[in-house]
Amino acid sequence: MATQTLPNAAGIIGAAVPRIDGPLKTTGVARYSLDHDFPGLVHAVAVQSTIGKGSIRSLDPGAAEKMPGVIAVLHRANLKNVYRTIPRQQDGSMAESRAPFQDDKITYWGQYIAVVVAETLEQAKAAAGAVHVEYDRETPDVRSDLSLGFSGNRESSWKRGDPDQALSTAPVVLDEVYVTPIETHNPMEMHGTVAVWDGDNVTIYDSSQGVVGFRTVMAEVLGVPHENVRVISRFIGSGFGGKLSAWPQATLAAAAARQLNRPVKISVDRRMMFSNVGHRPRTQQRIRLGATSDGKLTAIRHDFYTETSELDDFVEHCGEQTPFLYSCPNLEVTTAMVRRNVGAPAPMRGPGAVPGLFALESAINELAIKLNMDPLEFRLKNDAERDEGKNLPFSSRHLKECYLTGAEKIGWKNRTPGVGSMKRDGKVIGWGMGGASWSAARVPCTASVELCANGRVCVRCATQDIGTGTYTLFAQVVHAKTGVPLDRIDVFLGDTNLPDGPTSGGSMVTSAILPASTYATDQAVDRLLHIAALTPGSPFHGAHPESLAVADGRVIAKVQPKVVGAAYHAGEDLTANGLPFEDVLKLANISGISATGRTFPSFEDPKAKQYSLHSFGCHFAEVEWEPEIARLRVSRIFSVFDAGRIINKKSGANQILGAAVMGVSMTLFEDTVHDPRTAQPINGNFADYLVTTCADLPDLDVTFLDYPDLIVNEYGARGIGEIGMAGVAPAITAAVYHATGVRVRELPIRIEDLLQSKVLEA
Ligand code: MOS
């Protein structure tokens, strides 16, 4: 009796697997939210406030109502049955807690004050422009200096030791302020909603990063039972965090559709993206560091301001990474929230960490220069062995190896630290580095796997794929466990009718879906093997299910059984070929075997709670500086990440590449500018709001250390959606200093800053 090695499909975990939904997107088959159309569908266009602060004195829809195709103009006086959401609840929120049209108050430019519904989009747009509004104006506050107008108390967190005392006695002190501007999410696909009622039930197609929470919110704002709401978000042209919560246009579409008894479509155009659906708030961060003269950190103070809107509290948690990135006995982080007349802020890729680490990592780079130390050496010397903020060991931290690997990649040992001292091809080059971290967790998830009699496998989970590769990850797990080829695995996501799955946020989907999909597949396979053994007529009839397995999509005998069951065909080698799983189902007259798996959250897991769970990484950036024409280009970025085991090297690397591109964008281009008179974002379009284009891109290189973190899940995978954006900006500004001698502490870097460079020729 020889044991036989099963065919190894498990190798697909960790491989570079192309996205299974790729062809649907590239051929235009994938339908995004606004691609949905229904008989009788009408178009809604929001009317926006043209002042930044004040109130509506009068709103006259008369002229608009008489225009061709107009069905209704809905506003404060006639929009019915719209409620506020419960503030700050865990399972979904409305990004703006104020319900649309709830009063006449205006708190930001572009606020929706009415909505026009018409037969065509053009008719609705034209009529929206004809709604006559008079205002009582007040002066909006969009001042960029966030220390102005702050009247509350600073909130202190993570305090340990006595940082003020340590700073007053430290031989070397750094004290600088770092500023990041308002950055606006600009995914390719803008927000939009289609709402269709069928009696008391509503189906909402929205470009949402979290359909399950969205359903909760819509049930509340519409005042209908949870069960009556279905939210669908099958394909998303990315979100970057701007689509985590529901926004008011969805309320307007669903309420208008109910009131008018017609399917309604509403879209947020590119200009509205800058005012109505969130942004990364401006931050102003003072960092004070104290060190011994031989370069050991003794004190960190991180005191920051974060901007929010007039009506909603949103904190960009800039100090989240500060307590554990470095070993330091004395530390405090304080937060001050400052109100401005802007729309509600929202999480944006790496919220808190990205601006926070721009400040902290820039300060570390500057302190190293003050100490006459290599910034790499400084980091190695001050690396934290355990999380000194939570006083817990890290589940898995290989940041030093990230630094050393990145240094090796760029050739850091050949770096000469003098400003303007490195040259190549007639250009000055500069090198800089920055560290990154992002938290990990295992959030709850439910998924089902069904082995179907037609030979296909269906996987179902309500979580969504925001372009990150989630569809493919589910299929990889099923393939690894069953050997069924990827083209026979159908993954269904982004629909509240499916088993509850997590919001696509916090870089936590991968670690959440792996346990659920694994258990579901294991369970389904287990049931299949029992059926194979129990079904008369099955070649495995009478075998012990534990002697069977699934490989290549077929039920096989792991070993040739000693006692052959009644139906075994004498002499047939079932270890070699077995029987396709669908044939087993047919023999048993079963249409499909379904099983559900659940992921147990790390915050309820006593073992996981004993660890600090984080991913780590770094970027090494190179810039080229042509002083004669003041031209700066980011030429190379080497990114090295310790994000646990990487499940899909292709989509994983894509995450870091895309994040590095966004990091370049943040450092060199992005800045939402508000007109102080009206509080209007004056560069709210793609001609004036600059983002990285292909021509701006450096050569990008991504390395994963690939150490499994088995505290997070049995695959050892953490998450990589957001971390890649952290650490890019401080690496680039350090490289810019190295090349030009100009230290930029307020992003983005402007040509005006660089004109002060004294490095005059290459
Ligand atoms: Mo991320 S900002 O949680 O989409």
Describe this structure in a few short sentences.
The protein is an alpha+beta fold and 762 residues long. Helix content is 23%, strand content 25%.
Report what the structure shows:
With 762 residues, the protein is an alpha+beta fold. A 7-stranded mixed beta sheet has the order 3-5-1-12-9-10-11, sandwiched between helices. Strands 7-15-14-13-8 form a 5-stranded mixed beta sheet, with helices on both faces. Strands 18-19-27-28-29 form a 5-stranded mixed beta sheet, sandwiched between helices. Strand 23 (548-551) and strand 24 (554-557) form a beta hairpin. Helix 12 (470-482) runs parallel beside helix 13 (509-534) and helix 15 crosses helix 16 (728-740). The longest helix is centred in the C-terminal third of the chain and has 26 residues, at 509-534. The chain starts with 21 loop residues before the first helix and ends in an 8-residue tail after the last helix. It binds dioxothiomolybdenum(VI) ion. The site of dioxothiomolybdenum(VI) ion (MOS) has 12 residues, from loops. Dioxothiomolybdenum(VI) ion is lined by residues 209, 239-241, 244, 347-349, 351, 505-506, 722.
